[in-house]
């Protein structure tokens, strides 16, 4: 375990680490980082939350945050590991796209396969190899390259249904009609915006706006408004020392009690517990 943790701390300013496991056995442990393990040669056993996975070349295992796990590695085993802070999955895209693909998985509420077989010569194998090479060479810009590769990796997992997402066909003409509202909400997250005011921004009637918004986004206006506010609050809880009261008002909630209630509904835990868990 010491070898593994040293590898993660090698670049303290980076939200990820890449390594080849050296120790034959790691003691049971957990951490706030998500871990992706890929067996490229030999055999090993990975145990997660009491479940045992005997891995051979081509096996890829996903270990979510704070899951108890251990590794028993045969001498012939070559295991590529990627540990990453969940901030790596933050994208430059609108929270609309995050809500479809990443957030359910990040929060642990989405369905996914623990272990998959990576076909030889597949795109997924190529991405894993690129991550290792970039991390070892550390050429200028390698940090951005690896983040891009990690996002590509998760795109592959979504496309191959390793990570399940809800099926919803979006009409992009409809999306363009409500895009001014989405942009306004994301740029003025601390500002109160009623459904009626949002309908005016979209130049629609109240009824038609509510109906179209739910059809396109998959959430009601209020549900999506709370979603983007809680996403911002999650980041502030992890990256700042601001009080929960300040974060509640900074993200547009009228009271701390309402913020706490919505936060727990969205994430399954209270803000204080979330901050404590993610800062371990």
From TrEMBL:
PROSITE patterns: HTH_ARAC_FAMILY_1 (PS00041), HTH_ARAC_FAMILY_2 (PS01124). Pfam families: AraC_binding, HTH_18. It comes from the Bacteria. Residues 179-277 form the HTH araC/xylS-type domain. InterPro entries: AraC-bd, Homeodomain-like_sf, HTH-like, HTH_AraC, HTH_AraC-typ_CS, RmlC-like_jellyroll, Tscrpt_reg_AraC-type_HTH. Keywords: DNA-binding, Transcription, Transcription regulation. One of its GO terms (molecular function) is DNA-binding transcription factor activity. PANTHER family: ARAC-FAMILY TRANSCRIPTIONAL REGULATOR, HTH-TYPE TRANSCRIPTIONAL ACTIVATOR RHAS. This is AraC family transcriptional regulator. The lineage of its organism: Bacteria, Bacillati, Bacillota, Clostridia, Eubacteriales.
């Amino acid at each position: 375990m010491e070898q593994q943790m040293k590898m993660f701390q090698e670049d303290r300013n980076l939200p990820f680490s890449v390594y080849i496991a050296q120790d034959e056995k790691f003691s049971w442990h957990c951490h706030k980082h998500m871990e992706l393990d890929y067996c490229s040669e030999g055999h090993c056993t990975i145990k997660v939350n009491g479940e045992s996975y005997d891995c051979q070349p081509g096996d890829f295992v996903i270990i979510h945050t704070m899951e108890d796990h251990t590794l028993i590695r045969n001498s012939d085993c070559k295991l590529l590991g990627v540990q990453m802070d969940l901030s790596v999955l933050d994208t430059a895209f609108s929270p609309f796209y995050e809500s479809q693909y990443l957030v359910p998985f990040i929060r642990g509420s989405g369905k996914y396969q623990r272990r998959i077989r990576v076909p030889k010569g597949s795109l997924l194998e190529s991405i894993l190899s690129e991550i290792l090479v970039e991390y070892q060479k550390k050429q200028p810009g390698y940090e951005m390259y690896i983040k891009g590769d990690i996002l590509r990796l998760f795109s592959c997992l979504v496309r191959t249904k390793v990570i399940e997402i809800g099926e919803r066909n979006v009409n992009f003409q409809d999306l363009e009609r409500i895009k001014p509202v989405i942009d306004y909400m994301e740029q003025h997250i601390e500002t109160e915006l009623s459904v009626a005011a949002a309908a005016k921004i979209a130049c629609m009637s109240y009824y038609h706006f509510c109906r179209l918004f739910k059809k396109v986004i998959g959430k009601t206006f209020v549900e999506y408004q709370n979603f983007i506010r809680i996403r911002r609050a999650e980041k502030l809880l992890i990256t700042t020392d601001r009080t929960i009261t300040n974060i509640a008002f900074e993200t547009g909630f009228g009271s701390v009690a309402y913020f706490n209630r919505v936060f727990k509904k969205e994430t399954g835990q209270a803000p204080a517990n979330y901050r404590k868990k993610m800062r371990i």
